[in-house]
Amino acid sequence: MPKRALSEHRPYLLASLAAAVSYFFVMDDPIGGIWLMAWKGAGVGFLALYAAHRGKGFDGALIALVMTFGALGDVVLEFSFLVGGALFAVGHLIAIALYLRNRRPATTASQALTGIALLAATPAIAGLMTYPLPNWQAATGYSFLVGAMAAAAWTSRFPRYRVGTGAVLFVVSDLLIFAREAGHIPAEVGSWLIWPLYYGGQFLIAIGVVQSIRKHHA
To answer: From the Swiss-Prot or TrEMBL record, what is one GO molecular function term (predicted)?
Structure first.
């Protein structure tokens, strides 16, 4: 049974890693077009397939939806920053619902403080970095959702060193996007850091939630 289970879910994770790692080396191709957009979406898209195939029950469906909206957002961001951000926002709302459904029975003071810090600091930093650029309010509001997602993940019953850490990596990657767009960091630095942090965060979240769900059902 363990060998069969491994053979059933490993291809999705391997395909996801292959797509994400290879995309990192071609993402600056100036003539990429539609094929490059699809390549970008494939990394998290395969994580969505992994979650749909290996997840259990309603929580499994929720994490599959989170990854699906993430993959769609990856693609749409290439031609519309606002629409792509809206797709990610829907995914964050679903993720928040998932994590609140799975709240940790008892939260320590340090865990609660970390959650509060993620909730408050994420939009504050985004607002300070993007003001007074156009749409700075949208960036701040979106970052509030990202911070809420990370706070809910950190205080959920899911493993913090996978799901919680993954959510924090997602926060950092988004803040780096805003820092790059506002000119606070060189574009080259953003290009090297944002994608690995973002995909690494999504990967940790997907495997952490799915494995926890399966262990709970077992």
So the answer is: hydrolase activity
147 three-state secondary structure? helix
Of 146, 150, 147, 169, nearest in space to 158 by CA: 150
Domain count, the chain: 1
The partner residues of 39 in beta bridges, in order of sequence, read none
The span from the CA of 56 to the CA of 78, in Å, is: 32
In which domain, by residue range, is 207 found?
2-217
User: Model's pTM, two decimal places?
Assistant: 0.94
pLDDT digits (tens, 9 = 90+) for 59-117: 999 999 999 999 999 999 999 999 999 999 999 999 999 999 999 998 999 999 999 99
DSSP codes of every residue in 169-180: HHHHHHHHHHHH
Q: Which two tokens stand for residue 61?
A: 């469906």
Distance, in Å, from the CA atom of 177 to the CA atom of 172, rounded to the nearest integer, reads 9
Q: Which residue, among 187, 178, 100, has the nearest Cα to 143 in the 3D structure?
A: 178
pLDDT in tens, 36-50: 999 999 999 999 999
Burial group, residue 168, by CB count within 10 angstroms (0-12, 13-18, 19+): buried
